[in-house]
Amino acid sequence: MIGRRLRTAVVALPAVALLAGCPADTTDLDRDRVKAMLADPLVARDRKPHAEAGYLAGRTPVRNTVVADVIGIRSTDPATAARIESTKILNDLRGDGWVMYFAACVPPPPHGGTAKPGAAVTGGPSSGPSPEARWSLVPKARSEWWQYAAYGYKIVDGVSYFVRMDGVGRIDTHTTNVSVDLRMIAPHSTESVVDLFPDRPPAIPAGSGCLESATVPTGYQETGLRTLMNSNGPLPNGQPNLPGLR
Question: Is this entry keyworded Signal (predicted)?
Answer without folding.
Answer: yes
